[in-house]
Amino acid sequence: MSIKIALAGNPNCGKTTLFNGLTGSNQFVGNWPGVTVEKKEGRLKGNKEVIIMDLPGIYSLSPYTLEEVVARNYLITERPDVILNIVDGTNLERNLYLSTQLMELGIPVLMAVNMMDIVKKSGDEINIGQLSKKLGCPVVEISALKGTGIMEAAGQAVALAAQSRQNAAIHKFSADVEAVLEEIERCLGSGIPEEQKRFYAIKLFERDDKITARMNMVPDVEHLIRRTEEALDDDAESIITNERYTYIASIIDGCYRRKHRQKLSTSDKIDHVVTNRFLALPIFALVMWLVYYVSVSTVGTWATDWTNDGLFGEGWEMFGRWVPGIPVVVGDFLASVNCAGWLSSLILDGIVAGVGAVLGFVPQMLVLFIFLAFLEACGYMARVAFIMDRIFRKFGLSGKSFIPMLIGTGCGVPGIMASRTIENDRDRKMTIMTTTFIPCGAKLPIIALFAGALFGGASWVAPSAYFVGIAAIICSGIILKKTKMFAGDPAPFVMELPAYHMPTVINVLRSMWERGWSFIKKAGTVILLSTIFIWFTSSFGFVDGSFGMVEDLSDGLLAVIGRGIAWIFAPLGWGSWQAAVAAITGLVAKENVEGTFGILFGFAEVAEDGQEIWGTMAQTFTAVSAYSFLVFNLLCAPCFAAIGAIKREMNNAKWTWFAIGYQTVLAYAVSLCIYQLGTWFTTGTFGVGAVAALLVIALFIYLLLRPYREGKSLTARLSTGKAV
Question: What are the chain's domains?
């Protein structure tokens, strides 16, 4: 008989670190039934009978976001054998709010006070024995980051589950509140278990409609609630909130003692610099420049060059011996078995060239993901969201919108899914529409390819792509907020700022691998099929009235398709059929852009000396048209997987098409301006295209500066009334 342990706690309390420490590699990641919220479960190391569920971080059991609803529903309906409540010892008072609610569920609770190493280092004291006595549940000390006490805590949780004994919620509110809760409990029928009646009574008192929707019979207790509200001169939800904090304050006074009440912590001192009103943005820009410089221009490039020139090229020298590359090995094998010409071409020019062109950039991506994982784990990225809130709020977005965008640097799909943490529906829809403007991992190879081929590996290319995405988000926020669909104030920004800490190497590497592996899996599935399609349509065509393999790729079916749509992109500076095809195949998966160029420009052969691909790219693009192509692929509609995520989150076909249309139109307009004005400035040529670009900029400025739609409508109605 398996034992289920639910990990519950506030965001940034160390819950995921504890989960990784308890389960190791025995983890399973999926989605909760009916929703796309990530579901993580695993088995305890050394005891496969113990299942550990990592619930989404929540602040209370009065949920507002989908993650909070999922966590509460699991606890109420699935009823795990025991709840392992992780509490941040450095923020004990705030974390205990959720703890008091968990104690009311009628499920055995074991509290694990995390970050005790930090608490002791600061000289503070937490009386664990007294805390356990006042709460009425066992309490243990742990440090999830260092692995101290975590297996012992798991063992106690298993033992507590085996006892099948519920923790009686011993905390009491004021006499008036307790009296009304007892009356509500008596109104509850036999359908509610005795150990859960207090929880349901409190939720009924708070008028929690999500709870009442789950009850077969809802008693009429409105008169009891109103009577109490009038007596205490406050609304029901605020009454319960105040009662909880009054009770928590009584616990803190007896269990928690600070050594330096007025002394600034190390995190506070760092925040005085990195969140400074004037220094925050320059520091953030410097950090991102350094991240992309190392990932794209130095270390990442060295690893990628070896992969392209060695592993997927002619080969490399190791310990004085020459090791042939994959294309050489595969080619020799195919020649030795007298493989048919068309099949050899499919394998070498299609699969190896296309997939190899994509996988060649994996080292760069892994380096980038290591940096991002470190910045997230150490606590800096939470500060970035706080910093960006100051900016985003001025443009109609909440700082919460930055979180999905941050996640989107790895992949747009989870970034779009993360938008459900935003309570305001208009802000959530706008965030979904703009999240994919941030360069994801799949777009990094495009950036790296053009940075090397057209810009000599310049360090400014990659960071500029990142800031182009941010600029697109900000401008979109201004423009869309002035429309009737998105008008209104942004949702308030509330976010935990965890203390700075050094993340463990294992957790950083795990995060890096999870992001990188999803990319590699895509290369072996979607991209593989795409490269086969590209090879077939480029290698076969009609010549002299007959269908068959063509010697010149320009005679292939793909070239015909490309020339048919190339005119659309000609004003953007890249009207060649190869570039047009690459842009379209990028809709399937952005990684296909490199795969397409790899096939059409002979990437596998190029890898032998490492220079020909850049020369071919330079013949197809100028520096201005290359940057235009780069920006278009950064801002246009995302890959099919991300579009599917948009459809799920929008839950409306019209909104989905609107999002795709807006992204593509914006990408086209920006790319048009970059190429036409860039060509004018660099060559002095002024034509119809430059005039069109200036008109686009004028329209853009008007949309940015025009008054809000709400104000204009109100004025119109007033003037009409006066005329009458």
Answer: 1-263 (3.40.50.300), 282-350+360-480+487-511 (no CATH), 518-671 (no CATH)
